[in-house]
Amino acid sequence: MIEDVHNLGTHYEKTLLSWNDRFQKAWTGLSGRYDRIFKRMWEYYLLSCAGAFRARHIQVWQIVMTKPGTIQQPQRFA
Predict the structure, then answer these.
(1) What pLDDT score does 74 carry?
(2) Against a cut of 0.85, is the pTM above it?
(3) Do the domain assignments include residue 76?
(4) Is 25 among the domain residues?
(5) Residue 66 and residue 42: Cα distance in Å, rounded?
(6) Number of structural domains found in the chain
(7) Integer Cα distance of 49 and 9 in angstroms
(8) 51-25-22-26 Cα dihedral, nearest 10 degrees
(9) Could you give the CA distance from residue 37 to residue 60 in angstroms, rounded to a whole number?
(10) Domain range enclosing 53
(11) Mean pLDDT, 10 residues at a time, over the chain (78 residues)?
């Protein structure tokens, strides 16, 4: 039984951009362990994935399922 389906792509774009921002801010401390090629490849990965999510070329889905016959528990909201 499918209980919920949610496309997380718009959220994941923001997550990747945030990761890139944090990576840029941390680079000074990382530059002694990693070279410029690593930096460029990681930037390319984070930003190209963010762009692909923005363009809706890739997606991430969350699907919540239960076994058939499972009694649904009432939701409690705080």
Answers:
(1) 73
(2) no
(3) no
(4) yes
(5) 38
(6) 1
(7) 10
(8) 120
(9) 28
(10) 2-65
(11) 90 96 97 96 98 95 90 74
69: amino acid identity, one letter: G
Q: What pLDDT score does 78 carry?
A: 64
> Encoding tokens for residue 66?
């239960």
pLDDT for the residue 68 = 85
Q: What is the pLDDT of residue 10?
A: 87
The tokens for 1 are: 């039984």
Number of residues in the chain: 78
* E strand or H helix at 64: strand 61-65
Structural domain contains residue 49: yes
Pairing of strands 61-65, 2-7: antiparallel
As given in the structure block, the two tokens for residue 58 are 């890739």
Residues annotated as part of the active site: 49
- Cα-atom radius of gyration of the chain, to the nearest Å? 19
Report yes or no on 77 lying in a domain: no
